[in-house]
C-alpha cells in the first residue's frame, strides 16, 4: 500500500521521466497511449510523480487520470496521494468524483461479474465505463481467485464472449487489446490449470476404485475404502480452483474434464452396479462443476435449448447469475470439501447440470454447448490475435 512517505519520495524521481520525454521527442516510442502505458505499466513511481512537469507534458489530462485511477484502488491510497503536495491535492480536488469512482464501484462490479450476474454488472459499467479499466481482486470460497484483473478479463477467462463484447464497446481499442494480451499472452485459448490428460487419468483411477467399493452408501458419502478415498483426494487436489490462484492467465478451467466425467458415467452405467456407486459418481461430478466457467453455470436452466445450428443462443443464458433450480446462487453452495482427509458435502441433486441415470441426451446437449462456445470464442478472439499480428508486421516494416 502506498503511504505518505512513499508518495513523497516519488517526487524526487525524475530520471525516468526525463528519459521518457527524450524518447518521445526522438520518436523512439510511438505516440499512442497504449505503447506509453505499456512502457510504464509496472512503474507507478513515474505515473504518480505528478509534480514533475514531464508527466503533464507527456500525457493529456484524461490519460493522466486513467493512469492514476488504475493505481489508486482504495480510499487509503487516494488519501495518501492527496496529502503528498499541493499539486497532488489540487488534482484530487478538481477530479475527486472521477478518482473516487473506481474504488467505490470496482469491488461491487468485480463481485457481480465473477458470479455471472451480468444484468446488475451492466447497470454499473454502462453508467461508469472508466471502472472497466481498473484492476482488483475478488474471490469466493472454493472458487477461483482473480488477482489484479479487470472485469473484462474475468469475463474472457469465463468464456463469457457475448458479455465481453458488450464491455469492449466502452474500452478503447488499445485498452482492450492490452487487457486481452495479459490474459492470453501465448496466443492460445487454453486453461493453465489442471491439464486434461492428468484429470482424465485421475478420473479413471476414481472409477476403478468405485466399481469395487462395497462400503459406499448414499446415507453417508464419507464411507468408502482407502483406495477410493486416496483416488478421490488426488482428483480433488488436482482440479481444486484454489490450487491455481497463482495462474492468472488463460481460461479458468478445461471443460473437457467435465465432459469426460459425464462420458464415464454414461458409458459405464451398468458397470457401476448399484445406485450407491452411481450417486457417489454424481457427487464427484459436483466437484468438477464447481470449477466450470460461469457461462456454463448460467446455461443450466436451458441447457437443452442453448444451441441452435451449432450457434450459441446467448439470450438463453441467465443474466441474473449462476442460479440453481431453487433460485439460490450456485456460489452459496460448496458441494465437496476435504478436511483432515475426510469428506464433507453440501450435496443437493439439483447442483448437477444433468439428472441422475442414463442421460445420453444431456451429455449430447452439453457437448454441443461446449463446441458452440469454443467456436464462438475462437471467432471472438481472432480479431485480437490478428491485431497482434498486424502490429508485429508494422514494426518489422519500420
Task: Give the structure's gist in a few sentences.
The protein is mainly alpha-helical and 398 residues long.
Please specify the SSE layout and strand pairing.
Elements: H1 4-10, H2 15-25, H3 33-40, H4 44-47, H5 53-58, H6 61-71, H7 75-83, H8 86-94, H9 96-114, H10 118-127, E1 136-139, E2 145-149, H11 151-157, H12 161-168, H13 173-183, H14 196-210, H15 226-239, H16 256-267, H17 269-272, H18 275-289, H19 294-299, E3 307-308, E4 311-312, E5 336-339, E6 342-345, H20 360-397
Antiparallel strand pairs: 1-2, 3-4, 5-6
Helix pairs in contact: 6-9, 7-8, 9-10, 11-12, 11-13, 14-15, 14-16, 16-18, 16-20
Morphology call: elongated
**What can be said about the biggest beta sheet?**
2 strands, antiparallel
Helix % is 55-70%
* Classification by helices and strands: mainly alpha
Question: Can you write the helix and strand succession as a string?
Answer: HHHHHHHHHHEEHHHHHHHHHEEEEH
Report the uncertain regions: 1-51, 347-359, 392-398
Distance between the termini: 41 Å
Side-by-side strand order of the widest sheet: 1-2
Kindly report the average pLDDT value.
Answer: 75
Give the tally of β-strands: 6
**Strand percent estimate:** 5-15%
Number of continuous helical runs: 20
Cα-atom radius of gyration: 25 Å
